[in-house]
Design goal:
mainly beta
Amino acid sequence: MTYRLALLSSEVDNFKMEIEIASDATFMQLNNLITTKLDYSQNEMTSFFMCDDQWERYQEITLIEMDSSSDEDTYTMENTRLEEFMVDEGDKMFYVFDTLNDRGFYMSLREVKYEDCPEPRCTKLTGKAPKQIKMEEFLNSSGKKGKSGFLDDEDFYGSDGFNDDELDMEDGFSEVDMSEIDI
């Protein structure tokens, strides 16, 4: 069988990529097609996350084995086939190409064709894909806003809400009055 997958970006409105790939292909084959076609580095950490209908992530398929001591099942791209997780038209996943900033593509299984697909291929590519920020660029940015687009320290999300008094050096956090927290 052949899967027709659509990739969309929340960063670039006019970007769209369609892929045809065999249902028994590995996630690694899909990863390699995406990175090659979009001229992304294959040396960067990437992951696929299976998603429910509301795009909530529930299962990760990683590039490399991350934690073998976990009680949860772990899946690597090299050893996991698409058909193990994607079966029905409309199945969703999120492909993370920039792990440090949690940036990626929304993907959905658009069509299942009952024909062979000898090689994974891109059948449509419109718009320009978002830039992949490489780990080296991130480390060299020192948190300053520049060519790579990183925020400086004072603009970092959540930094304005941190209070040193909340941190207790002995056990991590000081006592907090739970009645003040809106749950």
